[in-house]
Amino acid sequence: MTVRQAVGGAAALVALATLAGATLAGQAPPASPALTTYHVQGNVWVIAGAGGNITVQASDAKAAGPGAGEGVLLVDTGRKEMTQAVLAEIQKISPKRIEYIVTTHVDADHVGGHETFARPRMDYLWTPGMVTGAGVKVIGHENVLPRMSNGPSAYPVIAWPTNTYSSAQRKIFFNDEPVVIIHAPAARTDGDSLVFFRRSDVISAGDLFDTTSYPVVDPARGGSLGGIISGLNQLLDLMVPRYNQEGGTLVIPGHGRVGDQHDVLEYRDMLVILRDRVRDAAAKGQSLAQVKAARPTLDYDARWGAPDAFIDAVYAEMAGRR
Prior knowledge:
Elements: H1 3-6, H2 10-19, E1 36-41, E2 44-48, E3 54-58, E4 72-75, H3 83-93, E5 98-102, H4 108-111, H5 114-117, E6 137-141, H6 144-149, E7 163-165, E8 169-174, E9 177-184, E10 192-197, E11 202-210, H7 225-238, E12 250-255, H8 261-283, H9 288-294, H10 298-304, H11 308-321
Parallel strand pairs: 4-5, 5-6, 6-7, 11-12
Antiparallel strand pairs: 1-2, 2-3, 3-4, 8-9, 9-10, 10-11
């Protein structure tokens, strides 16, 4: 049974954590009432229910030398009010310190916990005043920093990225595996990152991939549907299925269940089809109201939910190009 099949609902998530999600000590971590934690594969776990999905990379490696079993790496941190519950779940996976936070994008349900988790390292229980080392390294694309530091909704300085990158990729070696952080330009926003755990064969995609709803296209922060589709193509290029597009490389979405190549391919194809429908209507001079009246997403709405905001964004992008 694949992870995609096993995590179709909340009960299945709990079952997977119980049956297959052994902690590094060999026992399944009991989920807190609001959160669900389960093992994906390799060194990678996911915590769901704190806003956006939180990816946890941890290892019980005892090997000596740089890169082997140093601590915990997080991809995103969920909502601010969930930080204590998230910390409790992380400590069930590994007692080691959080050393890295990678930021996929700047939505509050993905970076709300940065303020707490990125503080200077303290003792095991984070007792106030027990500072024992430098702060956690927060990685993000260079476009994330101005989004988090400017405007009325700016985050505290402690939450800002301390390590930004401007190239196509940023690579680190941590917990005995290569971790490749890949920029997806002009996708959900202009600062989106994918995080590829190469040895574990797991990719954390942020809101570039969402198994619960149509994507949120955010042109005000540099996002575009064209960029989301290009980012999904990047994601597909990294994935190697075990058989018939199933298994193999697994993807943790920004929201919803873990997927494999088949899931990402269906999501990408759905977006391409709907983009083309709206683009053709805009090319014929139809207004937004006329496009909505034609219900171009009708055959997908039962799966992906309310389409109004999505159609608004796609129409604006397609009409603007025209």
